[in-house]
Amino acid sequence: MAAWTWRFEKADGTEVQPALTPEEFTTQGDAESWVGEFWKELAEGGADQVSLFEDTNKIYGPMSLHAQDAAQG
Fold first, then answer.
1. 3-class state of residue 17 by DSSP
2. Distance (Å, rounded) from C-alpha 2 to C-alpha 54?
């Protein structure tokens, strides 16, 4: 079974520890719902962007956690 995980990064792509520890999700929808619920806390905790992985395959990202960046995109 595939595991869906997030990579948390600074704006320059450097990996950072998230303010909240996510689980490994069993579906893409569960992973996206989780980041949608907690993106503000993650951004306040020092993450600027996230990338979604299915096992070791990058699905998409980086995606900004800053509302002003998302609104411009």
1. coil
2. 6
pLDDT values of the chain reduced to their tens digit, one per residue, 73 residues: 889 999 999 999 999 999 998 888 999 999 999 999 999 999 999 999 999 999 999 999 999 999 765 555 4
Residue type at 16 in one-letter notation: V
Contact 45, 18 (CB under 8 A): yes
d(CA 19, CA 40): 10
Please give the order of strands across the beta sheet that includes 4-9: 4-9, 49-54, 57-64
User: Coil, strand, or helix at residue 59?
Assistant: strand
φ, ψ of residue 41 to 5 degrees: the values are -65, -40
pTM score: 0.87
